[in-house]
Write a structure and sequence with these properties.
Number of helices: 3
Shape: elongated
Oligomer: single chain
Structural class: alpha+beta
Strand content: over 45%
Distance between the termini: 32 Å
Number of strands: 13
Strand order of the largest sheet: 1-2-3-4-5-10-11-13
Length: 221
């Protein structure tokens, strides 16, 4: 069983235990979508001003991008689970402040695409024909655990039935960056290649704060 399924079962088990332990409070399930893809979740109210929610989200997006002077055909693979505490400063308003952690398997992969038949390596122009049939790629992996802080609406412990949920916040994490290049390229231009890799790494690692905007529908019972 992979890590995603293991954590998913763990989240379900924790929420099920919470439901059994606090039968007097309303429980909730919800569907949502947004910048983190589509997902499912559940929440539990502890008091009128405190609750907890957990969810699982994912999506795949293909998108081209530029880094270090080169074009890449990229794919963003989003798979993460989140566990959050909810504070309701004005319980009957539905407004809340949420803080917690996202357990991530998110990664970005990109394959270099020559432009006008060339790659740019450390300020040099290198003909792509030299490496015909071979590819150079970059992979950015996001931290396994990223802290989250935000605010939202919904998961209100006082109201039952259908409802609306929304979240706006930010997660923090510095991605690690790795490269896969043809051996000939390393032999042909080792020093420029090292410079190019560092430029790409610096470009990707500038992004440390990840916006989160999710909306959905819920049912509290």
């Amino acid at each position: 069983m992979n890590r995603f399924k293991t954590v998913m079962l763990g989240v379900v088990a924790v929420l099920a235990s919470a439901v059994v332990a606090a039968p007097a409070m309303a429980q909730e399930v919800y569907l949502q979508g947004g910048t983190q893809g589509g997902g499912i979740g559940a929440s539990i109210g502890v008091t009128s001003w405190l609750g907890f929610h957990a969810d699982i989200d994912g999506m795949n997006i293909s998108h081209s991008f530029h880094a270090g002077g080169n074009k890449f055909d990229g794919e963003l693979h989003v798979r993460h689970e989140g566990v959050y505490a909810d504070l309701f400063p004005f319980p009957r308003s539905g407004f809340r402040i949420s803080a917690g952690a996202m357990f991530s398997q998110d990664r970005l992969t990109g394959t270099a695409i020559p432009e006008n038949g060339n790659y740019k390596i450390g300020g040099y122009t290198v003909p792509a024909a030299i490496f015909a049939g071979q590819t150079a790629s970059v992979t950015a992996k996001f931290p396994a655990v990223m802290p989250y802080l935000g605010f939202g609406y919904g998961h209100q412990p006082l109201h039952k039935g259908f409802g609306f949920v929304a979240d706006v916040g930010v997660a923090y994490g510095k991605p690690s960056v790795g490269f896969s290049v043809p051996p000939q390229l390393t032999q042909y231009a080792a020093s420029p290649l090292a410079q190019e890799e560092q430029e790409i790494r610096n470009s990707i690692q500038k992004v440390k704060f990840f916006p989160v905007v999710q909306v959905g529908i819920s049912y509290r019972f």
